[in-house]
Amino acid sequence: MTLRTPTPEEPFIARDATYHKAPPQLRARVQGAVAREGRSRIVHLGQRTLAWGLAFATVAAVSWNLGAMRGRDAAQDIVTHDVLAAHMRAVMATGRLVDVPSTDRHDVKPWFAGRVDFSPPVPDLTARGFILVGGRLDVVDGRTVAAVAYRYRLHIVNVFERPAREGEQAPQLTSRQGYNIVHWSRDGIERWAISDLAAGELATIAE
Amino acid sequence: MTRVTRFEDRVMPHLDAAYNLARWLTRNDDDAQDVVQEAFVRAFRFFDSLRDANARAWVLAIVRNAAYSWMEKNRPAEIVPIEDAGLIDADQESIGHAAPAESNPEVILLQSANRKLVNQSLEELPVALREVLVMRELEDLSYKEIAQIADIPIGTVMSRLSRGRAMLRAAIETRMRKAG
């Protein structure tokens, strides 16, 4: 297609279109809403501290009985369970797989801005056979995570992402109920990829 | 300093820019206000992710997201995907920002076009072109900032600006001819 060549007179819009300044009542409205959010955040933080305290007490009690390592395994087990459940829900329910359907990462990546507190990289993996389907939000381990869906031949692959809590972790393969799961951490992002795809093929997503 | 006062310091100064963008995207005062309120609450929630980044571009990206969510829900027909041409020559684009040739008859014609005419024509542009024009021409954001906010490559920002300007000019001329 051809583009019309811009000509020198074009920047006239700035002079002639209206710059809509925020109405005064909007400033008050926004300040009120932010202040309310600030207060509820403090309550939340309090609740969270309490919840963490209880969780810690539970884990401590469990660890006392089973040994610290097994407590940690149990926590990882819960996360794996969440990943499996989220994947199964997404695959079973029609129309639930993605909220932003697109094969273009430039549509999917910005959709997450302001929805999760980090920026999921949403890499283009076409060269490795993973075709982007889109993104959505999901819940793993009680937290909102970014879920990015890919298609590999006829298989659906879900990748769940959240900010890493620990350092780099090399890819680790597990399987649950016939699904393969790869878990790894890199560049500050922790990821789980899950699919009914063969383990060897799924693992290429973490390369 | 509390989180709320830090937010007031860094993000609230961009309320006008936020409203202007939301108003041009939703084309309606009430909806723009709702979008801005929602976006600022979200921005406050994710305030930690701002760090040292450019606060105006950061909050405008959130406002844009909120506005698009609103449009998806209320006016899905308006979100038409834009077929982007390849990269255009950066030099060609820079001509668009040369000093206006005041004596050019077309300029005089366009300068006399009244505000209403320009506003109506700009409102009717496809949203993907309208938003880059608003960010560039009214908000005076750099190509890089626009690319960041809309998450498109800089070359796409340039080609959309160029197409947006051409379409806007054509729309204004059509309106003027109709008006006689």
The string of secondary-structure elements of chain B, in order, is: HHHHHHHHHH
Shape of chain B: globular
Major β-sheet annotation of chain B:
none
Distance between the termini of chain B: 60 Å
DSSP strand tally of chain A: 7
Instruction: Give the strand order of the largest sheet of chain A, numbering strands 1, 2, ... along the chain.
Output: 1-2-3-4-7-6-5
Structural class determined from secondary elements of chain A = alpha+beta
Structure, described:
The complex is a heterodimer of chains A (207) and B (180). Mean pLDDT of chain A is 80; it is low at 1-11. The longest helix of chain A has 43 residues, at 24-66. The two termini of chain A are 38 Å apart. Chain A is built from 5 helices and 7 strands. Chain A has a 7-stranded antiparallel beta sheet, sandwiched between helices. Chain A is globular. Chain A is an alpha+beta fold and 207 residues long. Chain B has 180 residues and is mainly α. Helices cover 70% and strands 0% of the residues of chain B. Chain B has helices spanning 3-10, 15-26, 29-45, 55-74, 90-95, 105-112, 115-123, 127-138, 143-150, 154-179. At the A-B interface, helix 1, helix 2 and helix 4 of A face helix 1, helix 2, helix 3, helix 4 and helix 5 of B.
Summary, kept brief:
The complex is a heterodimer of chains A (207) and B (180). With 207 residues, chain A is α+β, with helices and mostly antiparallel strands. In chain A, 41% of the residues lie in helices and 27% in strands.
